[in-house]
Design a protein that fits this description.
Blueprint (H helix, E strand, L loop, with lengths): L7 H10 L4 H8 L3 H8 L7 H11 L9 H14 L11 H10 L1 H22 L2 E3 L5 E3 L3 H11 L5 H14 L6 H13 L18
Antiparallel strand pairs: 1-2
Helix pairs in contact: 2-3, 5-6, 5-7, 6-7
Amino acid sequence: MARKTLLGSKIRRLREQADLTQARMAEQLGISASYLNLIEHDQRPVTVALLMKLGRRFDVELTDLSDDDDRKLATGLREVFSDTTLAAQGVNPDEIRAFAENAPNAAKAVLELYRAYRLARDDAQSTTLAIGGGTKRKTVMPAEEARDFFHDRTNYFDEIETAAEKVVADANLPPGEPWRGLLDYARAKYGMTVDVVEPDRLEGAVRR
């Protein structure tokens, strides 16, 4: 099952940059204003034909209308807001997604600010080694290297994302409790069984 192309926030930004009303933009695209309104609110996907019209009429590259950048931004922001210093704020995934879609430049600035903060924190915590002549060299910690690896890729790996989307489609996960569908899928496809136990049986584990 292909992922629907929901580009409401980008279409809205494009319209506002062109200083057009919904009615005027809809007229230029040959669609109804109500349909454009649904698109801008992510209640209707953008068809390939409409993407082509947008590209020709407003002189934009189709890659500029891709939602991949928003997904990568949202993934990076999820890492930021899961940090122990920010987790207590309780920023939920819907807020993160809206932030990435509606204010991408601000979202990128937050990622860079977090990166600078993290590097400063790591510098303060890292050890130094004394080498010849009393010169000191910063020791790059393995955890720091791993964090940089994920940050440089905005915590996004296309092969993993694609494989995960295929599993979701193949497993036909039920709404509400997708984990039950995943257990059934793992059992049927790989012969894997999973025991779900009560918290008092976790023997000190930090995650359920």
